[in-house]
Amino acid sequence: MKPQTLAARAGIDTKLGVAKPLNLAIHQSTVYAYDNLEQLETVLTGQESGFFYYRNGHPNASALEQVLAQLEAGEACAVASSGMAAISGAFLAILNAGDHVVADQNAYGGTFALLTDDLPRLGISATFVDMQDLVAVENALQANTKILHLESLSNPTMRVTDIPALVAIGHAKGLKVCVDSTFSSPALIRPLELGADLVFHSLAKYLDGHSSVMGGAVIGDKELIDATRVRLIHLGATMAAFDAWNALNGIKTLSLRMNAHSQNSLMVARFLDQHAKVARVDHPGLEQHPQFELAKRLYPNGLGGMLSFELHGGYAAASRFVKTVAPRIPLATSLADVSSTLSYPFGTSHRALTPEARARINVTDGLLRLSVGIEAIEDILADLAFGLNAV
Asked: Which domain holds residue 154?
């Protein structure tokens, strides 16, 4: 062959030999080649496993899906380009025009926006209730309700959801019960084992743990996941090969990290709870938390690294605190890194909520969310004390 032909076909026939890599390779190819039509047909019809076009799936996504399904004790998993893409794909797989959703009033801001801005234009309505009030949940259900959507631990006020009780309510009415378990991870709780139909994750958070992955996942029974995958393909919400590969690497240390996050966050919560400049602390490991007993029952292995705390003095105090500690604990609009970070829910994750909606869930202008990392606890407490002294 001529040099230009050799260059154009470089790598097509590469063989790896008899050994296989201990770490999965990155399959950065948008298309896969076949020897004949019959071979392609067996893959398209599902008789054989294989890949043909990146948007429909690739080896890195498939490997990640198998691991996540096992971690969550589910039949199948579909990964997507983001956590919100996973939720959107699943909702569109279940809902039709005229259907209704009951969701937690503490739901993540992106989910709130999906249910109030986007789905209503498709003829789908939503009601938001306090999921801790089981009577209110039952009263919110309508004849056209199809989904009961909740969060295992809510963002940012760390409300603990009684998943088994809500599953019982939802299934009694024939609903699909969906749980966003991003704040918990399967290292702490597995909602499918408690009866939920679908569980969601933002892979950018604890499952990766290093702020280096963009992606989402939905896990459940095969029929629901297959229907969700079709919607994700139609939407073009494919997770990138590199992100899927990176997420697999992060998952390998999940249990170790969650144990360290959980221990550190509880010690930080107790420290903040005793500080004169802190008005309140939201952490289910504190005895005054309204779901303390429920948390002990559902989370025997810890509660992760998240908490929030409100400063006396409102916005001015929060602003001063952030400016003081930012060189040590940076302000970052995400969470679950191995290093500690701060967030300001009033102006970021819950910015889209009305003032009344923020007030109902106690997201005030003096509230800060802290993602407690796995650093030495002495250093974390020293950094927080340094910031509080400046307020």
From this structure: 37-251
Report the CATH number at residue 195.
3.40.640.10
- Identify any residues that bridge with 127 across adjacent strands, giving them in sequence order: 102
User: Could you tell me if 175 and 208 lie in one domain?
Assistant: yes
pLDDT in tens, 188-199: 999 999 999 999
Tally of domains within the chain = 2
Catalytic residue numbers? 55, 108, 180, 205
**Which residues does 72 contact at the CB level (< 8 Å), separation at least 6?**
186, 190, 191, 192, 199, 219
The answer to whether 58 and 51 are in contact (CB under 8 A) is: yes
306-311 and 176-180: which strand pairing?
unpaired
Q: Position of tokens 């709870």?
A: 273
Same domain, 87 and 166: yes
- 337 vs 250: CA distance, rounded Å: 11
Same domain, 62 and 200: yes
Helix then strand then coil, in percent of the chain rounded to 5, is 40, 15, 45
Peptide bond between residue 300 and the one before it cis (omega within 30 degrees of 0): no
Q: 377 lies in a domain?
A: yes
Q: Which two tokens stand for residue 171?
A: 């299934």
Which of helix, strand or coil describes residue 357?
A: helix
Q: What is the DSSP letter of 192?
A: G
Q: Over the stretch 147-204, which tens digit does the pLDDT of each residue have?
A: 999 999 998 899 999 999 999 999 999 999 999 999 999 999 999 999 999 999 999 9
Residue pair 113/352 in contact by the 8 Å Cβ criterion: yes
Claim to verify: residue 301 and residue 235 sit in the same structural domain: no
- Torsion sign, CA atoms 308, 313, 315, 321: negative
